[in-house]
Structures are given as structure tokens and as C-alpha cells.
Amino acid sequence: MSDALDRIVAGNRVYAQRTSEHDPNTFVEMGRGQAPEILWIGCADSRVPETTICHCKPGDIFVHRNIANCVHADDLNVAAVVEYAVAHLKVKKVVICGHTKCGGANASLADADLGVTLNTWLHPVRELRRKHKAELEQLADDDARATRVAELNVQQGIEVVKQHPTVRQAVRDRGLTVHGLIYDIPAGQLRLLDDTRATGGSGLWTPANH
């Protein structure tokens, strides 16, 4: 079996060759710039590659991914991505996508020590679990509870994104919209969340993120 790095380098050669054979101008056009219509904030999970699961091409989706697709009000990383995508690329839609079988959501069902960094990162998701304890206890099993936590986390992320000054201006000036999705890994299908209202309060973007 080949080394993992060797495989991806070889795979890139196949991709480049096949793409050029199909359309010799593809890479020339991409070299001229990008104009994606969607900003996708998703989970770093290797099973949820947004371009693949949405049957899109490179250049179609501007992407930020992290553990459990969290959007924290004091996170300069996601704030920079949002500002660049909305203010400079002029995306038309912002999508926050969670998924079933999410390790971060599952880990947030309890308070096991995952190490300082992950404990801090998942703290807001664990707070959602505590806030919705009664609802979650009514669900059949941990799989269902983790999926519900993933939904709640997406809804909370939407409310945080909506408070970003650049997003607020784009919503007002040009009709930018923000949406929540859940990707069902065993089914291979995306589901639009019907209710994208706040489930537990909005996080105002801090001055450090302006």
C-alpha cells in the first residue's frame, strides 16, 4: 500500500490531467479569480467534503471548516473568513452545515476531559446540551441526542453569524441570507433546517473581530 501523501500527490496528477482533458481552460479560468456565491461553514470531518457532497466544482463554494462547525463570537479565524467572503467576495448566501455522527456533538453529550483545547472549543456546545437537557432526555438514544445537539449548534451559529457587522450590512443592503443545513452521513443527503431562529440567545461579535 502506498504512503498516504504519495496517494494524494498521485491523485492530484490524475485530477489535473482529467480536468484539462475535459476542459483545457478550467485552470486558466480559475487562475483569474474566484466568485463563489456561497460561504460554507462546516465541520472538519473527513466524511463531509462540501464540494463533493454538493456535486459542485472548485470555485463554487468558499469554505471555513472546524471541529463541530462551531461559530464562536470571539473567534477571529471564522470572523476573518466571514468578513472576506461577505464584504469582498460578495457571496449571496452563508450556510452553516452540521452533520449526523458528529464526533464533536457526540463528545458534547458528556463532560469527559478531551484536553485543554478541545474542552475550551466544545464548551459552548456542551452548554447547549445543558440548556436543552430536558428535551434531549426525551430522545431515544445518544445518536438521536447528538443529532439534535448538532442542530442546536447550527442554529446558535446562525444567530452569531447574523450579528457580524459585515453580515448585518449585507443583509440590509443586498439581501444576503443565512441558512442551516444538516448532512445525514448514512443517507448521503442534506436537510435544510426549517427553524433557524435562536435557540439560546445571540452571541454579539466582539470588537476584536471587527
Automatic annotation (TrEMBL):
Keywords: Lyase, Metal-binding, Zinc. The keyword Lyase applies. GO terms for biological process: carbon utilization; cellular response to carbon dioxide; cellular response to oxidative stress. PROSITE patterns: PROK_CO2_ANHYDRASE_2. It is an enzyme of class 4 (lyase). InterPro entries: Carbonic_anhydrase, Carbonic_anhydrase_CS, Carbonic_anhydrase_sf. GO terms for molecular function: carbonate dehydratase activity; zinc ion binding. Binds 1 zinc ion per subunit. Its EC number is 4.2.1.1. Zn(2+) binds at residues 43, 45, 99, 102. CDD domains: beta_CA_cladeA. One of its GO terms (cellular component) is cytoplasm. Belongs to the beta-class carbonic anhydrase family. Reversible hydration of carbon dioxide. This is Carbonic anhydrase. It comes from Amniculicola lignicola CBS 123094.
